[in-house]
Write a structure and sequence with these properties.
- Chain B: This is 4Fe-4S ferredoxin-type domain-containing protein.
- Chain B: Residues 80-103 form the 4Fe-4S ferredoxin-type domain.
- Chain B: GO terms for molecular function: 4 iron, 4 sulfur cluster binding; metal ion binding; oxidoreductase activity.
- Chain B: InterPro entries: 4Fe4S_Fe-S-bd, 4Fe4S_Fe_S_CS, Cys_rich_dom, Helical_ferredxn.
- Chain B: It holds the Pfam family CCG.
- The complex is a heterodimer.
- Chain A is mainly α.
- Chain A has a single domain, classed as Up-down Bundle (Fumarate Reductase Cytochrome B subunit).
- Chain A is 79% helix and 0% strand.
- In chain A, α4 crosses α12, α6 (68-87) packs antiparallel against α8 and α8 (108-131) packs antiparallel against α10 (141-161).
- The longest helix of chain A is centred in the first third of the chain and has 28 residues, at 8-35.
- Chain A is globular.
- Chain B is mostly helical.
- Chain B has 3 domains: 9-122, Orthogonal Bundle (Fumarate Reductase Iron-sulfur Protein, Chain B, domain 2), CATH 1.10.1060; 126-290, no CATH class; 304-416, Rossmann fold, CATH 3.40.50.
- Chain B has 22 helices and 7 strands.
- Chain B has helices spanning 9-18, 22-30, 42-46, 55-68, 75-85, 94-98, 105-117, 124-136, 144-158, 183-187, 189-201, 219-222, 225-241, 253-266, 281-290, 310-314, 319-329, 360-366, 368-377, 387-399, 409-416, 428-431, and strands spanning 176-179, 206-207, 246-249, 277-280, 304-306, 381-383, 405-407.
- Chain B has a 4-stranded parallel β-sheet. Chain B has a 3-stranded parallel β-sheet with strand order 5-6-7, sandwiched between helices.
- In chain B, β3, α14 (253-266) and β4 form a beta-alpha-beta unit.
- Chain B is globular.
- Chain B starts with 8 loop residues before the first helix and ends with a helix.
- The relative contact order of chain B is 0.11.
- Classes of the chains: A mainly alpha, B mainly alpha.
């Protein structure tokens, strides 16, 4: 079991993540050719790009400027979510050991800070769901589920590195398991917003632009 | 009018399947229920931030439920959904601007309305209006002859203000075919006269059709897209028959959006473009002043603010033209905050005004946001280039004691324009 999780499962997870995401995008693209004439009739690449870019910036859009605390929370969450696993020393070393490819990494201290920032912002986002009535009313069990799927790899990674709670190899086992779960579930749950964001934003930026209206 | 036949889930599903697009699927997959749409919504703000008024919730309890239950819902459930889809949303689309993913919640509400309309679940007045379009071609059941007579009468009476004022009917090859909201011939014929005066003074080659003169498209909001398409087609046909270069819509918001942006899809036009260019009075008047075809005696002196109608400034392309025209007409233009495409809906749109007395109380509560926006400008004059906004802001004026006067562009231009001597009505008795 341990060997499976730390070996083949990782590669399966990556494959599911890549193929699943591509499949989602391609099937939507194919469908859109048939059902979304409005998009192709009025596509405006400049507005689409501007809309995507503005919303990738922490205060690039009017709605986020109006809610700076939320914007900051979202931004820290996503930046740490992407940077930490990509550049964690542990990941780079594993990668080099298995594939012989050198991968750049961040010092452990910095990775620790990013992880803690991630955990804090994730708790902030969870807190919003409990505390704010207008978020609570639209929160469903699956929202908590995807939150856990995102939170657990970071928590277990942190605990494994600091040798806390469980023996390191057991904790590492959990860390890899949860990490794989996140990758596998990403294309098929709401986590798919990671790539669907670009499609829906390109549409709305373009759609409003033909009416002279900005969406950022 | 709503009958009590059992709910036909197949008809509901047919609407959902027709609207099953890649973008709708992507929206349903991406929404993270983050709640950022809440504060975009004036219904939410005006109702003390009650969570039930936040946009995503409203889409979820209407279209979301219909999709989940595959149309198998009871009449009671449909009635509850009706109060959400019509009574808590004007489809102003401000939430689409606020959503990080740009999810068009307003469009989802619109699909929910289409579903319910198949079951005759819809505010009664809107269903009556659908019927009126089918029978008379306009929402106020005015026979075409009566419209033409009103125009003749208005031209004649207007000659006291502008010499030789004419309202050409069915003139071929005109530059502009001007079309109105049937509210004008019914209750405010003066509006037709003033629009005619502006175009006459600008030396425009224009006309009005004796059939196809109605521009409003309330079926867009009742959810009856079949009738909505018919109304648009009649408009396009009239312009093509007269070989008019452009269709110009009177100072009405949803009429413009329907004719220019949504109509081409209902009537299956190639590339989503209207067969005849569609423009709006705001743009037309803007160009007259810009090009010096209309000259002013002086600008309006008192502070004046401007209501940006959602269907002109957010779902239309006229925000900047509205502001530009205000600058040209007023010494002291005070914009509201937030402004232009970010402006709040006044709660007159989305069919709310024609929904009538049953919904007036809701309209007055939700209009609080607009009333406060106006109050903050400190202006006693509000320029409103949309009929439904006009009615709503007049009602808000009474409800919230705003002490304002609502004006339209044509009214203001007629008051300020400097007519050349040959157009000035001479005092003939004195001359004799």
């Amino acid at each position: 079991m341990y060997a499976f999780v730390n070996g083949p499962l990782v590669w399966i997870a990556f494959a599911v993540f890549v193929v699943g995401s591509l499949w989602q995008v391609m099937s939507l693209y194919k469908m859109s050719k048939r059902t979304d004439k409005v998009f192709y009739d009025h596509y405006n690449p400049g507005a689409a790009r501007a809309s995507v870019w503005a919303w990738l910036m922490p205060l690039g859009s009017r709605p986020l400027r109006e809610s700076p605390a939320t914007a900051l929370g979202f931004f820290v969450f996503h930046v740490c979510l992407i940077l930490t696993p990509l550049f964690a020393l542990g990941h780079a070393v594993t990668f080099e050991f298995n594939r012989g490819i050198h991968w750049p990494s961040l010092p452990d201290g910095l990775t620790d800070v990013l992880t803690l920032l991630f955990l804090a912002s994730a708790l902030f986002m969870l807190g919003r769901r409990f505390v704010l009535p207008h978020v609570k009313i639209v929160t469903e069990p699956k929202d908590y589920f995807v939150w856990c799927v995102t939170f657990l790899p970071f928590l277990t990674g942190f605990l494994a590195y600091h040798k806390m709670l469980l023996p390191p190899d057991q904790m590492l086992f959990l860390h890899v398991l949860f990490g794989c779960m996140m990758l596998i579930l990403l294309p098929f749950t709401k986590l798919a917003h990671a790539f669907l964001f670009f499609l829906t934003r390109a549409f709305i930026g373009s759609e409003f632009a033909r009416r002279g209206t900005k969406t950022w | 009018m709503s009958d009590q036949k059992p709910v036909n889930a197949e008809e509901i599903m047919a609407v959902i399947e027709r609207n099953d697009t890649a973008r709708l699927r992507a929206w349903l997959k991406t929404c993270m229920s983050c709640g950022l749409c809440s504060e975009s919504c004036f219904f939410y703000l005006a109702n003390d931030n009650k969570p039930e008024f936040m946009p995503q919730y409203k889409a979820r309890v209407t279209l979301g439920e219909l999709i989940k239950k595959k149309g198998n819902v009871s009449r009671e459930q449909l009635q509850e959904m009706k109060e959400v889809a019509w009574g808590r949303c004007t489809m102003c689309r401000r939430c689409s601007q606020y959503c990080p993913f740009g999810i068009e919640i307003a469009l989802m509400i619109n699909i929910a309305r289409q579903c319910m309309r198949t079951q005759n679940v819809c505010p009664d007045r809107l269903m009556t209006i659908d019927q009126s379009y089918v029978e008379f071609g306009n929402q106020m059941s005015i026979p075409d002859e009566e419209f033409v007579e009103t125009c003749e009468w208005m031209a004649e009476e207007g000659q006291d203000r502008l010499k030789d004022l004419e309202i050409p009917i069915d003139k071929e090859d005109a530059n502009i075919m001007f079309v109105v909201n049937s509210r004008e011939p019914k209750y405010y014929p003066q509006d037709i006269q003033e629009a005619a005066m502006v175009m006459h003074a600008a030396g425009e080659n224009w006309t009005m059709p004796s059939h196809g003169w109605e521009a409003t498209n309330l079926s867009m909001f009742s959810g009856n897209l079949k009738v909505a398409g018919q109304v648009t087609q009649t408009l396009y046909d009239a312009a093509q028959k007269l070989r008019a270069k452009k269709i110009c819509i009177t100072e009405c918001g949803h009429a413009y959006r329907a004719a220019k942006y949504e109509g081409p899809y209902w009537t299956k036009q190639p590339n989503g473009q209207a067969p005849v260019e569609v423009t709006h009075a705001v743009k037309l008047f803007h160009d007259y002043l810009k090009e010096g075809r209309i000259k002013l005696k002086h600008k309006f002196k008192e502070p004046m603010t401007y209501q940006h109608p959602c269907n002109l400034s957010r779902s239309g392309d006229l925000g900047a033209y509205g502001d530009g025209l205000m600058e040209m007409l007023c010494d002291n233009y005070v914009p509201m905050q937030p402004d232009a495409e970010w402006s709040h809906c006044c709660c007159g749109g989305g069919g709310f005004i024609p929904m009538g007395a049953d919904y007036k109380k809701i309209r007055m509560v939700a209009g609080k946001v607009k009333a406060e926006q106006i109050k903050k400008t400190g202006c006693k004059y509000v320029l409103v280039p949309c009929h439904n906004c006009t009615d709503q802001i007049n009602d808000l004026n009474k409800e919230y004691d705003l002490g304002i006067k609502v004006m339209s562009f044509k009214e203001l231009i007629c008051e300020l324009m400097d007519l050349p001597p040959h157009m000035q009505p001479g005092d003939e008795e004195e001359a004799e």
